[in-house]
Design goal:
Helices cover 0% and strands 42% of the residues. It is mostly beta strands. It is elongated, with a radius of gyration of 13 Å.
């Protein structure tokens, strides 16, 4: 996927003809809201949900 400024969007990738989501969705917010990847955790910027530990 390409954003409006022409740079590739890291949240999605193409796998042949299928669109693949690269980040985990937030279990509280649902599909469309992704958890940000940090060195030691995954965090949702919308609701504040955090998963600690590498997965």
């Amino acid at each position: 996927m390409v954003s409006s400024d022409g740079t590739p969007n890291a949240a999605y990738s193409l796998d042949g003809e299928k669109l693949k989501r690269n980040n985990k969705p937030c279990p509280r917010c649902g599909d469309g809201v992704f958890l940000a990847k940090h060195a030691d955790r995954f965090h949702c910027g919308r609701c504040g949900y955090t998963e600690y530990g590498k997965k």
